[in-house]
């Protein structure tokens, strides 16, 4: 099995060569690692490589393919790139789908306000939706000018993480 | 004598209060909203009653509902914790009217210290230094101009009823006075329904240092020394420590005496905190009084050896203070880190969610006050603080090393937390040397948000962990088991059974 | 200066030692057997090496394997913890020969104190009171009879190389002397390869009180006061506290001085414990010296404010002691409960297994030294102790209340533990009054093993929980999902999603 | 659904009358309980009944039908009685199957010694098997005189909990 994984901007090829219990041989780009990798809890890995003991925390982020990976001293943003991601990346020339024209809730919360309507023209920087979670309000703004194509929440709604909230059709320039 | 205590709060502070009650043999009553049936304070209490929907205003802020539960459960006292109704004079008064002991100050003290202009006047009368500025509220521009010229720019215009940065303006130039004054007044009016504002000299690079006080109903008051609270972001405390690395013993003693005078000036009883703003030369000025238990009270408990919640209950019972000022001393050094469910790399955006795994920091010199557990879902409605990590050591350097160690041990998945950010603070030179003020985070942000050096291996190990975790998820999906929870147990189990 | 420490142990003590190393900035090396890949000490250390099969004799007791890992990892010091190789003179000597610092005493001190007859002689020479009895080993019956008549019955016949109750006989009647003598000798021979035995007066209803000592390589030695360890079953300590409720300040000071004299008598360096047997009138006698860190060292750390592991490392580094005797005092009261995976209702039978859920006790005055985590399987090969719960409070009564509270908070499923039994001890009159000796558990067994009064509701609630848990399991089975782990998540989740 | 459950000697009929989320109505013998029962962890229940908050720990014992139920102050031994148990109970007149003639391992461990052979006659109190776990050896003895019918382990074996180790056919008197 092989996966393409993006870590803080670097895209790496990760391939499993062999597995014997928790002893795995994995190739990361040109480097081959023989590593003792044990899952000790939900999202918690104990890894021993060349005698060194590493503790890794995997925290799922905005989608099942996004993780924050902590190893105490370092914190990485990681994305597993599947076919769909690759297509999206190629089409948007590096911009991910949610960066330009779609507001996706990064956390569960409650919709406080939606100051736009479907069909409305919006400027770059204009607030599309305000979400409250844990006593803090977050405003989500249009990254570029466009027309509000669809709104998938109503004021007062309780929303889950990773839900598409507002889609803006960018103006073609 | 108090026989049963209703704790009108949730989260870590509700549990912390119930701990002391349990040690004293006093049964506790929890109240909970729709979002909190599975919360720890409900599990911890001897009794638990539902009080309404998740939004605080319909549950934890509902005086009527809380009083009704107290009556139903025969609780003869209420501890309000911090936040929610803890500094609500009407609630204190209502408890009194209903014959329920409010474990906190009387309504008059709350009102007197809650209005900033009244508080300033009270302090001036008591001989406590206040920030140079106006005594009465400012209504017109001419008066403001005259006062500000006397004080000297820059100044802060502040709402008398204020708090949380609302109705506050920093004025650096004379031409901005008029607009700042009207801006502050209208903001104060809409936020607090009161447009009274006053002017204070702006103290640059200040330290935020507060004194814990205890006062009984017999006129006795003591202080329990200071807490240094200058590590802040967005006016929120992040890390506190005691003793303050800034204060000399002489200034400490003087400030302590002023803190006691401040408490006596409003006939205070209960636990309270006198906040001072302090410049680099240890000139200090009364800022405000918090008429409740503070989040950061545990560092005082550790260094002074006093259980503040028990003292509050004893005071409410009408007992005299069990300590005299001369009995108390600071022994060793304590630091508290507040652990939030938030993403430091995304502007500290809240990160509610389900706790998938916790490894709690333990061992010598570590106190952990939390309320979340594995499988618990942090609700979106309340504060993102999930626990407080408190360490003690015989001196400040050792305390910092211990906090680093404790943060290293603290593993949590399911939500993002401020742990990596806090660990970086423990490594920042300005913090380690003790030379920092309220601008610390701003001034050190390059260091605090940078990654550590690591040989390329760390990054590759993170990639390998991602590979294993994700490929296991895919396998689960393929095998038709799409429960999200028990990821991994099977793999782990297969390893284990090989051992036994 | 020590640059890297190999911890030749497992379980809570390995983690505890690594905690202090981490605070000192010293990297650590773990060793682990086949049964311990998932153990916390492996996760905690900076490096980890496999050393063999699960049985200790092939792994944690293998001097060659441990030395080999030290060399491979460039560890320049080894901390042995307690148990395993900690009191093995050959291991201490081997470390020295290999140029590795053994963080503990030199081989000669271990040998001198390990042989009970030699230890007694050394103590007599140093002026430390010993239990009345023989100075040299007893070989024939005539000599034994003569000595025992001098001492007076009852007496104990003990193996000089002994420990753990082996080679030990209580003699109450003269006619039993001959058979007891030969029985003890043959048992000693087969257990320790040495049939040397000696005779001591039997002290009825004794207290077991030990003194912590620290000695550096420059001839300085101090004591860190006592630990009362009289709550025992089968010669195993269950609960320890400090200060001892028995000792007066005068006797404490005298015993402390004798403890220091004992350490100096064997040119000791490192941390050690002088065990005394004490009668109700505070007559005390040297029993033995433990030439290592004790399980119960945290109560001393808490009351005296010293990190004993750091002191051991400093001593190994050749530093002078950082404390003088007059710097030290006991402040407040500490109690430790040892939490075992065992079934108190079935004669304390071990209960290994997989930890399904833990809620750890937290908050003010609580220290918890453990190593298990949710999902961890306790191996069958090693000690059943899973953690140590240590509380501190300003006085003994409050410490007992706090321990009750902490035990109440400690929830664990998957294995049975001694928690309910320990909670009963905290409620026993003899314990609460501080008037107890080593017969405490035996004398109070009716109380300790009885159930609490409870209205019938408790029992019915237990039945309802059983009904819900079992019926949920049945449903899981029916729905074809027969994983044993994630019982309940689905039901719980469905509740939660209704809230959010 | 209804279950028969034995608790410290008492046998109770427990019947679920209604369930609405975590609000359950359950009859225990003649008593009807409306109870708010929430599973908060594996084996951990938070129960609220008439305002009182109870915390219950369920610890599986020698079989999936045996539990130790802790509520801090009280610890109960509980057994769910199914058809098989009922048959066994009726046949042995109250003695459970493992009390007389069968040694079942109460915990995982290692077999240290088996001082008897199949076909051998044993006395009451004679040691049948010695199992070691966590530095402690436990001897299991014959409760009554009989003939060793079968032995299901060998010296040195690592055994799981709840495994039949030795069966003794009692002498008919």
Summarize the structure.
With 173 residues, chain A is mainly beta.
Please write out the topology.
The complex is a heterotetramer, with 2 copies of chain A (173 residues) and 2 copies of chain B (500 residues).
Chain A (H helix, E strand, L loop, with lengths): L1 E6 L2 E11 L2 E6 L2 E11 L2 E6 L2 E9 L5 E5 L4 E7 L1 H9 L5 H4 L1 E3 L4 E5 L7 E2 L4 E7 L2 E6 L4 E6 L6 E2 L4 E7 L3
Antiparallel strand pairs in A: 1-2, 1-8, 2-3, 3-4, 4-5, 5-6, 6-7, 7-8, 9-16, 10-12, 10-15, 11-14, 12-13, 14-16
Chain B lengths: L4 E3 L3 H14 L3 E6 L6 H5 L2 E6 L10 H10 L4 E3 L9 H9 L3 E2 L4 H8 L1 H11 L14 H11 L3 E9 L2 E6 L5 H16 L4 E5 L5 E9 L5 E13 L2 E7 L6 H17 L4 E9 L5 E7 L6 H8 L3 H9 L16 E8 L1 E2 L5 E2 L2 E2 L2 E3 L6 E5 L6 E2 L6 E9 L2 H14 L1 E3 L5 H9 L1 H5 L6 H4 L1 H4 L7 H23 L10 H11 L1
Parallel strand pairs in B: 1-2, 1-4, 2-3, 4-5
Antiparallel strand pairs in B: 6-7, 6-8, 9-10, 9-12, 10-11, 11-14, 12-13, 14-21, 15-16, 17-20, 18-22, 19-21
Helix pairs in contact in B: 4-5, 12-13
Description:
The complex is a heterotetramer, with 2 copies of chain A (173 residues) and 2 copies of chain B (500 residues). Chain A folds into 2 domains: 2-81, Glycoprotein, Type 4 Pilin (2-Layer Sandwich), CATH 3.30.700.30; 97-170, OB fold (Dihydrolipoamide Acetyltransferase, E2P). Chain A has 173 residues and is mainly β. In chain A, the strands form 3 sheets. In chain A, strands 1-2-3-4-5-6-7-8 form an 8-stranded antiparallel β-barrel. A 4-stranded antiparallel β-sheet of chain A has the order 9-16-14-11. A 4-stranded antiparallel β-sheet of chain A has the order 13-12-10-15, with no helix packed on it. In chain A, 8% of the residues lie in helices and 57% in strands. Chain A is built from 2 helices and 16 strands. By secondary structure, chain B is α+β, with helices and mostly antiparallel strands. Chain B has 4 domains: 5-103, 3-Layer(aba) Sandwich (Rossmann fold), CATH 3.40.50; 132-201, Dna Ligase, domain 1, CATH 3.30.1490; 207-449, D-amino Acid Aminotransferase, Chain A, domain 1 (2-Layer Sandwich); 458-499. In chain B, helix 12 (396-409) packs antiparallel against helix 13. The longest helix of chain B has 23 residues, at 456-478. Chain B is globular, with a radius of gyration of 24 Å. Residues 482-500 of chain B have low confidence and may be disordered. The interface between A and B is large, with 65 and 56 residues.
